[in-house]
Write a structure and sequence with these properties.
Blueprint (H helix, E strand, L loop, with lengths): L7 H6 L2 H51 L11 H72 L7 H64 L1 H36 L10 E11 L2 E12 L4 E6 L14 E10 L10 E6 L6 E4 L3 H10 L17 H13 L2 E2 L4 H11 L17 H13 L11 H8 L4 H12 L4 H18 L2 H4 L3 H12 L7 H5 L1 H13 L8 H6 L13 H13 L7 H8 L11 E2 L4 E3 L18 E7 L5 E6 L2 E6 L3 E3 L1
Parallel strand pairs: 7-8
Antiparallel strand pairs: 1-2, 1-6, 2-3, 3-4, 4-5, 5-6, 9-10, 9-13, 10-11, 11-12
Length: 674
């Protein structure tokens, strides 16, 4: 297992888990430091050994030069003459080789020892200094914090404000030290990959030069050692072939004896907080919970139970699970919640997971469902959704930035079970901004992104290729693996975006801008991590490829009669040779995607581009309410604050924006666009 990633946001939380992960890095850094010191010591010993070896080889060479074969009899065979002469030549070869070795020894200190010592002192040393500063500021801050929390509330307001300012200052110093230390220790871990290895590579290059010299010189000695080499080579070949067979047998035996790792006992397990209702509100009590899918058994053990008469009493409660539903954020003041129903207990049990990803794991294990509103449900690709999107694309211009309350009213109206399937979205009732935000809200609120979680990593892998042609073909192949409804909806949307991009001189909606807008919406990640955010640019590229390679269709009667488009499928236009390559690639993975000939017959037919509208993007926005950030990745701002570089976030209901030089998340319904 590799080292755990240290997120900058963890520096502010400073949790025990963060300290534990930081400790892993410190242990690894100490191990690396110790290893480098040992390596330097070994390097000195190696250089010394090379000097001794050189002296020994020279002595050995002198011995060969002086040795004279004495054979029984009064004559020597050709083999004996050749062997006797080869010793003289070998002696000369060794002397030539030792000249190269002496150069290697002279340069070894500069190319190996000095760089390693510099890396250890400058890089690892800097990280250790960062740790000292971190430990010092941590001790100072927590000591001050303890004193600060013990201040009496009866002190003068001015004194309390001064104390607050002082603790804020010390907290910032601690955060700065923590961030710098996290940055430095991970920087050193990464830099050791090259600054640590490069000196070794340079040293090895010297060795290779030394050996290459021997290889070149060996050719000059072929007449003298050919017969000897033949005999030696035969012996060597026999040895190597035998060794290979033995190794194969050993590996087969090892493989046959290896036990497969058994699966875990539980489908899912971990800590959850259980909501318990009290006379004056409710409490959240930590439990250790397990779920076994085969028997549908959910158990929980209260880890906060206090001992009674010195005896711990925290029996495990077991239930048979009936249902599991994700809890909407606006229905409870806690995050990461979900509800379960069990056979043995009446009513709902509300549980809080440790994070969004942790909640997702519990929901997946329990086959959890998304919450369904009795009035409207727009989290699925159903007929109402298709009708909604088609009407938008035909009737409205898209202008980013609708008021959240109006958007919610629109969604409730359109997706109400009582709504007519052919409901008109007239411009007198719904303004363009509300309509636009409704479209994005619908796509963003799907229970699964339009391009699916399953294919998310495959799409990213495809566009990370250096080969532009391969990117197009791989994305095309993956689009055809989408479910039919997803593919149909994607086709409708991309058709429209293609039309919008053709008017980019007027609407500023270039393909790149459209990718920025719709990439995070159509391809949101299942994980909410820094790493996932760094992949957003690749999600945008996927959308760009789809737009750029979506060809206009001809509705010519003759063409449609001879080459019908199957399943209203997405049509891209790669060349025949590219199709052949991508087919070979996927065939090598055991996935047969299409017959080249059949596909090329259909690729001649394209779908007609529907009449469309313009999308106008607004990069600046203004806060209509004030907001205090609850997490480090969110922004705090007053009413009337001006934001720049505003664009959709991967997290539903939030925007990414920049305020006073800091970039973070802001609630979507707290701002209006200029």
């Amino acid at each position: 297992m590799g080292l755990p990633t240290l997120e900058f946001s963890d520096s502010f939380v400073d949790s025990p888990d963060f300290r534990e992960r930081l400790k892993c890095h410190e242990i690894e850094l100490d191990r690396t430091n110790t290893f480098i010191k040992e390596l330097i010591t070994d390097g000195h010993q190696l250089i010394c050994a090379l000097k001794n070896l050189s002296a020994a080889v020279q002595k050995f060479s002198q011995s060969l030069q002086e040795f004279q074969f004495e054979c029984i009899g009064d004559a020597e065979t050709d083999d004996e003459v050749n062997i006797a002469q080869s010793f003289k030549e070998f002696s000369q070869l060794l002397n030539t080789m030792e000249e190269e070795r002496r150069r290697l020894i002279q340069n070894a200190d500069d190319v190996l020892i000095t760089p390693l010592e510099r890396f250890r002192k400058e890089q690892i040393g800097a990280a250790k200094e960062g740790k000292k500063k971190f430990d010092k500021e941590a001790e100072k801050y927590y000591s001050s914090l303890e004193k600060h929390l013990n201040l009496s509330s009866r002190k003068k307001e001015s004194a309390l404000q001064e104390a607050d300012a002082q603790i804020d200052k010390e907290r910032q110093l601690f955060y700065d030290a923590s961030l710098e230390y996290v940055f430095k220790i991970q920087e050193v871990q990464e830099k050791k990959k090259f600054e640590f290895v490069e000196p070794l590579l340079a040293f090895l290059q010297g060795l290779f030069t030394f050996y290459h010299e021997g290889y070149e010189l060996a050719h000059e000695f072929e007449p003298y050692k050919q017969q000897l080499q033949y005999n030696l080579q035969n012996t060597r070949n026999n040895f190597l072939s035998t060794k290979q067979e033995v190794e194969k047998l050993m590996n087969r035996v090892r493989s046959a004896d290896q036990d497969q790792k058994p699966p875990g006992q539980w489908t899912m397990e971990g800590y959850l907080y259980v909501q318990e209702k009290r006379p004056l509100g409710c409490a959240w009590i930590q439990h250790y919970c397990t779920y076994e899918k085969g028997s549908n058994t959910f158990s929980m053990c209260n880890t906060e139970a206090k001992p009674t008469n010195g005896v711990m009493s925290n029996p495990t409660e077991k239930f048979r699970l009936k249902s599991c539903i994700r809890r909407k954020t606006d229905s409870i003041d806690k995050r990461f919640c979900f509800d379960i129903e069990v056979v043995e207990r009446h009513g709902i049990i509300t549980l809080q997971a440790l994070s969004e990803s942790n909640r997702r794991l519990w929901l997946e294990a329990m086959d959890g469902k998304e919450p369904v509103s009795p009035e409207a449900n727009f989290s699925y690709l159903n007929e109402a959704g298709f009708n909604f999107v088609r009407k938008l694309l035909i009737s409205f211009y898209l202008i980013v930035g609708g008021i959240n309350s109006k958007v919610q009213k629109l969604m409730t109206t359109v997706f109400s079970p009582k709504a007519a399937s052919d409901m008109d979205l007239d411009s007198d009732t719904w303004d363009n901004k509300t309509i636009t935000s409704g479209l994005k809200n619908y796509l963003r609120c799907l229970s699964e992104p339009l391009m699916t979680y399953k294919l998310h990593s495959d799409f990213l892998l495809a566009v990370k290729s250096d080969d532009q042609n391969y990117r197009v073909c791989a994305v095309h192949a993956l689009v055809h693996k989408l479910p039919d409804k997803n593919k149909e909806m994607l086709e409708i949307l991309i058709k429209h975006l293609l039309n919008v991009s053709t008017h980019s001189e007027n609407n500023m909606m270039t393909v790149s801008n459209l990718g920025v807008i719709f990439g995070p919406t159509l391809m949101r990640s299942q994980e909410e991590t820094v790493a996932a955010m760094m992949n957003i640019k690749f999600q945008n590229i996927v959308v760009e490829i789809l737009i750029e390679n979506f060809e206009k269709a001809s509705e010519s009667k003759d063409n449609t009669q001879h080459t019908p488009v199957r399943n209203n499928a997405f049509i891209l236009y790669p060349y025949m040779s590219i199709l052949t390559n991508v087919q070979k690639f996927w065939d090598s993975k055991g996935q047969h995607l299409f017959e080249i000939e059949n596909f090329c017959n259909n690729v001649k037919v394209f779908t007609h581009i529907r009449k469309s509208f313009l999308i106008l993007i607004h990069r600046d926005a203004k806060a209509i309410y004030s907001c205090e950030a609850e997490h480090s990745h969110e922004l705090s701002f007053p009413k009337g604050a001006h934001f720049s570089n505003v664009y959709p976030s991967v997290e539903p209901g939030w925007l990414q924006a920049t305020f006073e030089g800091k970039t973070g998340l802001v609630p979507e319904n707290y701002v209006v666009f200029f």
